[in-house]
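[Discussion] Sanity-checking designs against the backbone

I'm trying to build intuition for which residues belong where. Below is a structure token string of 287 positions. I'd appreciate it if someone posts a full sequence so I can compare it with mine line by line.
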């Protein structure tokens, strides 16, 4: 038990030292942490995002309303914080489901043998050839608008690129000495996956997940911009951008504030992803 605690502390210390010395990774983690904590805890200090103040409609940013108000007199700071929460919830949820589906597909393809893998590859090629945005739009038109339908619609084709990355990584590891040794000892495919392939694929999976989240944020924003995503009274960053673009000439803060935070989220995740990719490249070079 003490050895496990010691190993955990040692691993945590190494992780912190790497984050501290990698400026890009540190910047991304810091900014993203501040954003998430603000989105969680700051709403308690400001009015409810649905509450209207008709006498304060379309106020520019000021001491009372730091991000101004919209045409109904709603606090833009409260709505922006809600937008950050919803956009991250949708993007992270869709990406995690994509990774889980990609892992499941790759595992089944590897365990099923060459014929099964070839058949599954043909299926994914057909699905991958479908244009993603029109497919999402079609599904939302057929079924319903809302958070859960949007997440599910985004995962319909979103898992395929991730599945390809994971499966390619599995194939690369298949020829490694430790995998060949395990096969020579007649280890089962499940044992090889659990003990060798999955642990050695974890780094690329996390890196892919981090890089995929910004794309999911922009996808959600575009769908909401078209009016098929998050519906009032809720608001994602994409919804706020859609509402703000109509007031761009006279009330530009309604557009630029949510757009700014959308870019900040994207840059933060990309900084984290670049930092993790650098770490993976260093480890591969050492190997």
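Best answer:
Here's mine. Compare freely.
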């Amino acid at each position: 038990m003490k050895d496990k605690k010691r190993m955990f502390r040692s691993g945590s210390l190494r992780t912190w030292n790497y984050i501290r010395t990698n400026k890009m990774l540190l910047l991304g983690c810091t900014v993203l942490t501040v954003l998430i904590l603000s989105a969680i805890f700051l709403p308690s200090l400001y009015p409810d995002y649905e509450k209207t103040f008709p006498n304060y409609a379309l106020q520019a940013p000021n001491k009372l309303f730091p991000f101004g108000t919209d045409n109904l007199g709603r606090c833009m700071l409260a709505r922006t914080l809600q937008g950050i929460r919803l956009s991250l919830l949708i993007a992270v949820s869709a990406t995690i489901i994509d990774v889980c589906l990609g892992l499941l597909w790759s595992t089944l393809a590897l365990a099923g043998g060459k014929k099964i893998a070839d058949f599954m590859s043909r299926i994914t090629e057909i699905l991958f050839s479908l244009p993603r945005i029109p497919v999402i739009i079609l599904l939302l038109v057929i079924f319903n608008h809302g958070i859960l339908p949007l997440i599910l619609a985004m995962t319909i084709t979103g898992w395929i690129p991730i599945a390809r990355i994971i499966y390619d990584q599995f194939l690369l590891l298949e020829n490694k000495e430790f995998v060949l040794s395990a096969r020579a000892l007649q280890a089962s495919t499940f044992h090889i996956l659990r003990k060798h392939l999955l642990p050695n694929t974890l780094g690329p999976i996390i890196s892919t997940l981090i890089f995929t989240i910004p794309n999911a944020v922009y996808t959600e924003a575009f769908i909401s911009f078209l009016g098929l995503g998050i519906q009032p009274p809720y608001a994602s960053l994409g919804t706020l951008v859609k509402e703000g673009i109509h007031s761009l000439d006279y009330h530009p803060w309604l557009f630029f504030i949510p757009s700014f935070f959308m870019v900040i989220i994207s840059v933060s995740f990309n900084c984290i992803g670049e930092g993790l990719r650098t770490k993976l490249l260093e480890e591969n070079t050492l190997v």
